[in-house]
TrEMBL record:
Recorded catalytic activity of this chain's protein: 2 H2O2 = O2 + 2 H2O
Protein name, entry field: Catalase
Record: active site: 54, 127
Keywords carried by this UniProt record: Heme, Hydrogen peroxide, Iron, Metal-binding, Oxidoreductase, Peroxidase
Cofactor(s) required for function per UniProt: heme
Broad class of enzyme this protein falls into: oxidoreductase
Organism name: Terribacillus aidingensis
E.C. code: 1.11.1.6
Binding site for heme: 337
GO cellular component terms listed in the entry, alphabetical order: cytoplasm
Single annotated GO MF: heme binding
Length: 485
């Protein structure tokens, strides 16, 4: 028997929560039942807009522990010494589907980590793939339109998907990873995570390094057979969500090791391709993995909406010692995320418990919808001031960097979209190649326009002739003559 009294949202005791106030036992309901009005009205407002991408997700709390000294590369306080532990929160997601869509679909998986460091939050908003489909933010809304529903039929549209990809050959590397066995992870615990973009680390002396992040699953990479995945998608669409929750609930805490690749700043001018191009990976022979630490997930959210749905991650949520690169996708993302958060959650989203920094937040921002903390109280609310308000710290300024060139809308210097996907194909075992070809064929078969199929097969053929031929054979089409010659 609970000793808690049911109250209205304004804290008054509720007299009856089962029977509305009516005029007589069969009479109409009275508008005077303010508890009923409030209950119905609040219910109508229970949903916030779902994320425009990555809508379906699962989250968990945990910690990050430094296991190797990387302080010569970055002054980030949470990475300053071996053994240091920092609380973190992660959200895994699929990309294209809606909030209620199935977990076991062929799709990249989001891998968004929030570190609650002593110098503010640091978000690493990556995927389970080291590359992306496109390399300029200006193409993102069009790309995502092709992954969503057709405006008339409200159905997924394979013609749009493959039309866009075949006209954007920079996508081939990521499409290959997506069509490989890794396109459907067995669980969220059995996949790697990547920052994907190139970021910049800066040390105490102000020296910079380009950096790429790799989270390696300690559960081993395991993938799901597409036929099994299709069956599970129908029977248990929340399969991955449940698996993660149960593993943590049972004390089987999933763990990832974090490694980085470090590139000296000057190498970016001479490396054999643009190291800021997110459709490419850096060779690990050139830039080997350096261990940083381990991430352990050991606590489930207490409340899904409060902690997972309201979580807001942004690649622009950075701390001193970690900065961005000129990657044109990353640059666009610096705008997109907090803009989405202000629309989806509200202007004060960063003050919500799941998003709030664990250190003190002091600034001159005030007011806005749902301002639920003390709003700075009676403290000074402008700067400059002579009232001893919070002051900037010049040691936290970003390291200066040079820019040059004429302002123009220009593409990347180099357009080799084929070497890296071709190498990936050639690295696969015979069985993996066969499954890759089959996955391409199965995904492309529903396309109705032959020219789209031919254009995509032409790209695959350029990456590897045998691979292109096998996909063409599977689709019953020929290699377009312009490519074959
Ligand atoms: C979520 C935009 C590229 C990973 C989102 C959201 C937007 C967005 C608007 C929803 C945010 C929210 O409502 O909370 C963009 C744009 C991109 C881009 C404009 C390109 C210019 C990428 C790339 C990656 C990525 C390259 C991975 C390397 C994610 C993840 C989430 C997400 C993991 C879900 C975060 C969460 O769990 O809350 N993106 N995105 N996105 N994006 Fe991107």
């Amino acid at each position: 028997m609970t000793d808690k009294r049911l109250t209205t949202s304004w804290g008054a005791p509720v007299g009856d929560n089962q029977n509305s106030l009516t005029a007589g036992s069969r009479g109409p309901t009275l508008i005077q039942d303010v508890h009923l009005l409030e209950k119905l009205a609040h219910f109508n407002r229970e949903r916030v807009p779902e994320r425009v991408v990555h809508a379906k997700g699962a989250g968990a709390h945990g910690y990050f522990e430094v296991t190797n000294d990387v302080s010569k590369y970055t002054k980030a306080a949470f990475l300053s010494e071996v053994g240091k532990k920092t609380d973190m929160f992660i959200r895994f997601s699929t990309v294209a589907g809606e909030l209620g869509s199935a977990d076991t679909v062929r799709d990249p998986r989001g891998f968004a980590v929030k570190f609650y460091t002593e110098e503010g939050n640091y978000d690493l908003v990556g995927n389970n793939t080291p590359v992306f489909f496109i390399r300029d933010a200006i193409k993102f809304p069009d790309f995502i339109h092709t992954q969503k529903r057709h405006p008339q039929t409200h159905l997924k549209n394979p013609d749009a998907v493959w039309d866009f990809w075949s006209l954007s050959p920079e996508s081939l590397h990521q499409v290959t990873i997506l069509m490989s066995d890794r396109g459907i992870p067995a669980t969220l615990r059995n996949m790697h995570g990547f920052g994907s973009h190139t970021f910049k680390w800066v040390n105490e002396k102000g020296e910079g390094y380009w950096v790429k992040y790799h989270f390696k699953t300690q559960q081993g990479v395991k993938n799901m057979d597409p036929a099994v995945a299709a069956k599970i998608a129908g029977e248990h669409p929340d399969y991955h969500t449940e698996d993660l929750f149960n593993a943590i609930e049972n004390g089987d805490f999933p763990e990832w090791k974090l490694y980085v690749q470090i590139m000296p700043l000057e190498d970016a001018n001479t490396y054999r391709f643009d190291p800021f191009d997110v459709t490419k990976v850096w060779s690990q022979k050139d830039y080997p993995l350096i261990e940083v630490g381990r991430m352990v997930l050991n606590r489930n959210p207490e409340n899904y909406f409060a902690e997972v749905e309201q979580a807001t991650f942004s690649p622009g949520t950075l701390v001193p010692g970690i900065d961005v690169s000129p990657d044109k996708m990353l640059q666009g993302r610096l705008f997109a995320y907090h803009d989405a958060h202000r629309y989806r959650v509200g202007a004060n989203h960063q003050a919500l418990p799941i998003n709030r920094a664990r250190n003190e937040v002091n600034n001159y921002q005030r007011d806005g919808q749902m301002r639920f903390d003390n709003n700075g109280g009676s403290g000074v609310y402008y700067e400059p001031n002579s009232l001893n308000g919070p002051k900037e710290d010049p040691s936290s300024k970003i390291a200066p960097f040079e820019v040059s060139g004429e302002a123009d809308s220009v593409g990347y210097d180099e357009n080799d979209h084929y070497t890296q996907p071709g190498d990936l194909y050639r690295l696969m075992t015979e069985d993996e190649k066969t499954r890759l070809v089959q996955n391409f064929v199965d995904a492309m078969k529903p396309v109705t326009r032959k020219e789209i199929l031919e254009r995509e097969v032409g790209h695959i053929y350029k990456a590897d002739k045998e691979w292109g031929q096998r996909v063409a054979d599977g689709l019953g089409i020929s290699i377009p003559t312009v490519t074959a010659n």
